[in-house]
Design goal:
The chain is an alpha+beta fold and 420 residues long. The protein contains 15 helices and 5 strands. The model is unreliable at 9-29 and 415-420 (pLDDT under 50).
């Protein structure tokens, strides 16, 4: 059938209009599509600009300069997008923030915000989860703080007080988090595939895919709060007993726990990251000037000097024989214990001398050189005490996590041996 040109134009325009309305209605009705479109609205142009520089700029120095400029320009918008969408983007960003071999410094600086600045959801969003999961048992709360105590990729934590007076922490999973994870992981997977096709990332060892699959598998397991609760209880009964007096592991409230809620006793204390940074700063590790690696390298060099002096001393036949006889008689561990006690006795003597000089200063009879000696001696005592406490703190931290992962083996929602 032949149609006039004017009518053809009207038909095409009508068809396009109907298609546009249909697609728009579908996008409006399908939140997963909206999330994907939001993701690609930021990531798409970002990838395109990197590709343009890579393909169109031949000079290596100029290409590097332009890539640095792109890093500065896109780091904040990308992290803001991760913060806005939440879910696995938060978890992915947290992972990348500590992987300098994968992302550059501009991105890592912004991504570190995801370690501690994740915004919580409005209470109205988690309230429906609390009521649907706990039902009548929610009435056991005498009070419940609607402001989140902390937030993460899967859920957020609120504090409350039970009618028996016990203060508790309640970890609540966000509603609809499972389908959001599935949609978001699909977007991330597609972005990695595009980046590989365009040679933006190394394909030789398929490292990006390996890391991504690991994050996806771990994240999907972490959606099971019942398994996480079982692991927490198992860890309390193992590591909690083994390291009693050094660590505290909260006890759970089983009848107030579901696969989307974990209720546990609330323990006061600073955040782990803040305490580690405080202790490292106290012994001279400043994130702005001194790296942890350079700090411990300096300590290793000093240790080598001490070992060298000890080795030269051991070459003396008399001292070598004395050390050997002592170690043979009482054992090396006992010898080390005696050495520590001698060091403690020395510290006590120095502290006593400092107190005597302070008393003399109060009487007005202490010399300037004595006061300078006290200042240096007290600083040395404080530094060595702080270093020893920090070393013990980090040793316990690593021991507990090593026990958790390698001996139990338990980590968040990983399956226990009984379920494997």
């Amino acid at each position: 059938m032949w149609l006039p040109r004017s009518r053809i134009g009207k038909v095409v325009a009508g068809a396009v209009g109907v298609t546009g309305v249909t697609v728009g209605a579908y996008v409006a009705a399908e939140p997963g599509v909206r999330r994907e479109l939001r993701f690609w609205s930021v990531i798409g142009p970002c990838i395109a600009r990197y590709v343009w520089v890579d393909k169109m700029v031949d000079d290596p120095e100029e290409r590097s300069r332009r890539n640095q400029a792109l890093n500065e320009a896109h780091a904040k918008p990308v992290v803001d997008l991760f913060m806005e969408l939440g879910g696995p983007y938060i978890k992915l960003g947290q992972y990348l923030s500590v992987r300098p071999e994968i992302v550059g410094p501009h991105y890592r600086k912004e991504l570190k915000k995801l370690q501690s600045e994740v915004p919580g959801k409005p209470f109205s969003e988690v309230e429906q989860v609390l009521l649907s999961e706990l039902g009548d048992t929610f009435s056991e709360f005498a009070s419940f703080d609607e402001t989140p105590f902390g937030a993460a990729s899967i859920g957020q934590v609120h504090t409350g007080v039970l009618r028996n007076g016990q203060q508790v922490a309640v970890k609540v999973q966000y509603p609809d988090v499972k389908w959001k994870f599935e949609v978001d992981f699909r977007c991330i997977s597609n972005a990695i595939s595009i980046a590989q096709t365009l040679n933006m990332i190394d394909q030789r060892e398929d490292t990006a895919v390996k890391y991504f699959n690991e994050i996806r598998e771990t994240s999907m397991r972490e959606l099971d709060y019942l398994q996480e609760r079982r692991n927490l209880e198992a860890l309390r009964n193992t590591a909690g007993v083994r390291y009693a007096g050094k660590i505290c592991i909260p006890d759970t409230i089983p009848h107030l726990c579901t696969d989307k809620i974990i209720t546990m006793e609330f323990l006061e204390g600073p955040k782990l990251e803040e305490e580690v940074l405080r202790r490292l700063l106290a012994v001279g590790v400043d994130r702005g000037t001194t790296s942890v690696r350079s700090f411990f390298s300096e300590k290793a060099e000093k240790l080598q000097e001490v070992e060298s002096r000890a080795a030269s001393l051991a070459k003396d036949s008399y001292w070598a024989g004395a050390f050997s006889r002592a170690a043979a008689m009482i054992g090396p561990q006992t010898l080390l214990w005696i050495a520590r006690r001698v060091q403690h006795a020395r510290d006590l003597a120095v502290w006593t001398a400092c107190s005597a000089v302070d008393a003399a200063d109060w009487l007005g009879v202490a010399s300037t050189s004595h006061k300078e000696w006290v200042h240096d001696a007290q600083l040395d005592l404080s530094t060595r005490r702080t270093e020893a406490e920090t070393r013990e703190f980090l040793d316990v931290l690593l021991d507990v996590h090593g026990h958790e992962v390698f001996q139990c083996p338990l980590y968040n929602s990983d399956p226990t041996l009984e379920t494997l």
